[in-house]
Amino acid sequence: RDELERLHLSIGINHSIVEDPTLFLALGLGAFWLWLPRLAAAIVAVHLLRFYRVAMGRRYRSPATRD
User: Fold this and answer.
1) pTM of the model
2) Cβ-count burial of 66 within 10 angstroms (0-12 exposed, 13-18 middle, 19+ buried)?
3) What are the two backbone dihedrals, phi and then psi, of residue 40, each rounded to the nearest 5 degrees?
């Protein structure tokens, strides 16, 4: 379930990685500057979500169940 939610987050950020650049490439923008920020944002968002869930999981566990 966790992996599926991370996949949905990444797809949500990158859903138009093909469509939007084709529009902006016609205006003369470089492909590198269109794709790199989207990929970087997706990677960062997925890892932040993972770290947040790990932190919240540790925070709300009772002392008896902590590792």
Assistant:
1) 0.61
2) exposed
3) -65, -45
End-to-end CA distance of the chain: 22
What sign for the dihedral angle of Cα 22, 24, 30, 31? negative
Cβ-proximal residues to 58 (8 Å cutoff; 6+ apart), any chain: 66
Give dist(CA 6, CA 49) in Å, integer. 8
pLDDT in tens, 3-57: 888 888 888 777 777 777 778 888 888 888 888 888 888 889 889 988 988 888 8
